Amino acid sequence: MGTLNIDRYHAAMGDASYKDVARLHDSKLSEAKATFYVTQRKLPFAPCLGHGRLLRLLIDSQIDRPRLRFLEQDRGGLQLFAKAIEDIQFVGKIRAVRPGTIVFAQQPFADIEGAFGLTQAQEIKFEHAFDLPMTTASTAMQFRMAAGEDRWLSDFSLRRNGDIERAVDIAVYAFIGGFNDTSNMEAAHRLDIPAVGTEAHYWQQSYIEYMYEPEIEPRTGKPKHFEQVAFERWLDANPNGTTLLLDTIDVYMGAVHAAMAATSTEARRRAFKGFRVDSGDLAELGEWCLRFFEANGFYGLRPNLTGDLDVEKVRQIVKDFPRAAGFGIGTKLSSEVPAVAGVIFKQCMIEDKPTLKASNSIEKTTLPGRLQLFRGSDEKGNYVGDVTGLDGEEIDIPGAARVETLLLPFWDNGQHSSIPSIEKQKSFVADQRRRFPDINNYPCLLSDKLRQLRDDLTAQMRADISGWQEVVKMPEEVPDKVTQAK
Q1: Which of 68, 136, 386, 441 has the most crowded CB, counting CB atoms within 10 A?
Q2: Which domains are seen in the chain, by residue range?
Q3: Residue of 384 and 360 predicted with greater confidence
């Protein structure tokens, strides 16, 4: 049964809230046609993902009897609302950009139209559906851009994700955003994402007994270092190829012990495909290890670097150590991200009238009207600019040979569009990424018509000739600010 995704804070405060919807359920407002649009405010750009999550939330939205009873007993007056949503699935219309479409901050990537009461109640579903996927995919995309197209990116975030379902989701969205594989075996099993891993630090630590009772190295007649023994056993257990982790004790000596292990037999030499460094100056150590192994006859090894890497560190390593083959990203992929998407759901139409939230902060001012997102591309297919405008506008984008509309029908009275496979979404994101000449400075504008509507409507909403000055009193310093606002 559907979960009770209703924000009690708004219900208590009564700000166009579920409490108001309950009281007005039988009124004209509750049945008025309303449109809300969805955007994100905090990421510079992000692949729009979460469509499948939204479908599950919409389809599985029927509320069970215990939750309805909880609403009926709520002190905020939700009895009528509880009755209104019983046995009801959302039957309005939803438009959205195609799954994987790269969108920018403040651009509308979805909208929803239907009766005000039940349409407004879908707010949390949209926010929950898109926030985590877009945050993760945006972060993954930025890692991909920093690493370059040919270097390997592995999701190592399983341990940082709180629970297995969230970890599986993050593996999927990172994969779509540009990662190559995951260490998460559950995600690999469910979704056919390649599963990878390296030897762990504790493997070497587990061979400490050989420090006290060493094996003899036949090539020297002297005791082997216990780390060499650990490497030999790992190579024997992974004859088809594996990566050795060098920094359990000391990276330089780890490289020596790896070379000793891998040169001890031909089978071990064939099994040694790459090395991983997890601490220290990764670029310097990676470069030294690669040269050391090449001096000992190991060519084509893959240097893999890990260790709380963020986007800037990856970019710097690529500059300092161009031969780095890949990176394992964990903490900074999912649990220590610089910003979440901040998905918001805002009303833009009531019946046939545009509306907006004017706000005292420009970043929180919303857009009015039935919106559309336009994207222009040149004759070579490269993107040249985006314009957020009003549905039905004729938009001219400088340099564009073609302008396409991105908001497309997604849900209509319970019928919905299909969701492409994650492989197709991944390819779509990669294709778009190559079509942005400079994504960090990509032009995103408002159409003149939308800007004028926003400004005129804001001025109208702030105008007040009710004579309130004859009724209420203000501190001396406030009237000037009120006059300025008008």
Answers
A1: 136
A2: 8-121+339-468 (3.20.140.10), 169-334 (3.20.20.70)
A3: 384
